[in-house]
């Protein structure tokens, strides 16, 4: 969108945030509107669709650090009374909307003596050129007498980054999965293929700026550049606009993207798809798509890095006498040996049966054994246990030996 059109927009209001909101606040506001007013969730609701479109457009500008700075500066100039293109006029006694003049009458015609270096510090004219070069997308002019023109470069407005969320089962996340995602955002116009020009025509080099996207002016000792208004700083003009997209080269539509989620992704991790975000204007590069992965807990497994963890119930006799238990893994089952006299709560390690790593190796399976106490033993079993308890005492076994000395 041209900077001239930005002056008529209030992007912060469209997102429901203040102009001082930080990047995180802006992102959260956009995601909230996208979730609530997405056309897929509100079929036939024209008002919701309009709110979604406004929020998408607003985020494409104030969600981008560089474009936000330009937008804020432009709004400041407009608020000061300069309007678009009111960049100042430097001459004897002249004034410019929003700035005042630089001349023998001083700054803003106050009548006080004024030295440019007082305002811009040591460097005077060159510093002033730096200010205007940074403000309007050009570069500061050199210090040659009589002024120089800013370096010329065509600006392409990159499309906004887009964020979305998916939810995976625990085992899908650990093994990796391919999932389709439905998106509704600005995409290249299928009619003009993103050029913005009517089919059968093409954008032409702007004669005003000779394709540079900038026009330069010399004002006495100063030289500065500003975006060409005739081509909005793109360097080309569309004589016959595509009717489907109005010459922007992009149009909001729904599309399905296949996302490959790598094995081992964790809850909250983001997968980046370069160039799959919102399309840029008139063939400019698209932004990126960031997919935040949410992982639901599993009934059996949990994770510690690349290690897979589970707790297996065992009997007291299995820990005392030793033995083996069969436990699941992500792919099959495995037998785990329990050494004789293993303490309750011990974690046994099975090498290479955990989560796959990116280098092709795998983490380990960590099996914690936990005694399950029987609840319904018959009298014969209870009698046997009593005899065993007597044998324990006779053998001198005391489970709390030394315990009191370790408490407190």
UniProtKB/TrEMBL annotation:
CXXCXGXG motif repeats lie at residues 189-196, 206-213, 228-235, 242-249. One of its GO terms (cellular component) is cytoplasm. Zn(2+) 1 binds at residues 189, 192, 242, 245. One of its GO terms (biological process) is DNA replication. Keywords: Chaperone, Cytoplasm, DNA replication, Metal-binding, Repeat, Stress response, Zinc, Zinc-finger. Pfam families: DnaJ, DnaJ_C, DnaJ_CXXCXGXG. Residues 176-254 form the CR-type domain. Binds 2 Zn(2+) ions per monomer. A zinc finger (CR-type) spans 176-254. PANTHER family: CHAPERONE PROTEIN DNAJ 1 (PTHR43096:SF54), DNAJ HOMOLOG 1, MITOCHONDRIAL-RELATED (PTHR43096). This is Chaperone protein DnaJ. It comes from Corynebacterium heidelbergense.
């Amino acid at each position: 969108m041209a900077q001239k059109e930005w002056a008529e927009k209030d992007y912060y209001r469209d997102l429901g945030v203040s102009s001082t909101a930080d990047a995180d606040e802006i992102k959260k506001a956009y995601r909230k509107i996208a979730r609530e007013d997405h056309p897929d969730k509100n079929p036939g609701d024209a008002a919701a669709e309009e709110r979604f479109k406004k929020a998408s457009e607003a985020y494409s500008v104030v969600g981008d650090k560089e474009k936000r700075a330009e937008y804020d500066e432009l709004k400041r100039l407009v608020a000061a009374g300069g309007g678009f293109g009111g960049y100042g006029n430097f001459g004897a006694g002249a004034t410019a909307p929003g700035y005042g003049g630089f001349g023998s009458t001083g700054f803003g015609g106050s009548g006080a003596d004024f030295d440019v270096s007082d305002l811009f510090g040591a460097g005077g004219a060159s510093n002033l050129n730096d200010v205007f070069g940074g403000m309007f997308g050009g570069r500061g002019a050199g210090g040659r007498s009589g002024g120089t023109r800013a370096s010329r470069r065509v600006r392409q407005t990159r499309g906004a980054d887009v964020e979305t969320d998916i939810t995976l089962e625990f085992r899908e996340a650990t093994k990796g999965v391919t999932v389709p995602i439905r998106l509704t955002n600005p995409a290249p116009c299928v009619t003009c293929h993103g050029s913005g020009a009517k089919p059968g025509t093409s954008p032409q080099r702007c004669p005003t700026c000779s394709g540079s996207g900038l026009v330069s002016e010399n004002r006495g000792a100063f030289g500065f550049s500003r975006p060409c208004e005739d081509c909005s700083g793109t360097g080309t003009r569309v004589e016959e606009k595509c009717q489907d997209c109005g010459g922007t080269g992009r149009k909001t539509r729904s599309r399905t993207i296949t996302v490959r989620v790598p094995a081992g992704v964790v809850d909250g991790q983001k997968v980046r798809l370069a160039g799959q975000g919102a399309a840029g204007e008139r063939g400019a590069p698209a932004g990126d798509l960031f997919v935040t992965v949410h992982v639901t807990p599993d009934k059996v497994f949990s994770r510690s890095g690349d290690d897979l963890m589970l707790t297996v119930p065992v009997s007291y006799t299995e820990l005392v006498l030793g033995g083996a238990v069969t436990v699941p893994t992500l792919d099959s089952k495995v037998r785990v040996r329990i050494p004789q006299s293993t303490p309750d709560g011990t974690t046994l390690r099975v090498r290479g049966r955990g989560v796959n790593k990116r280098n092709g190796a795998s983490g380990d399976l960590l099996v914690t054994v936990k005694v399950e106490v029987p609840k319904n033993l018959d009298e014969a079993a209870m009698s046997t246990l009593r005899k065993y308890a007597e044998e324990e005492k006779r053998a001198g076994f005391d489970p709390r030996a030394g315990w009191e000395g370790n408490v407190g």
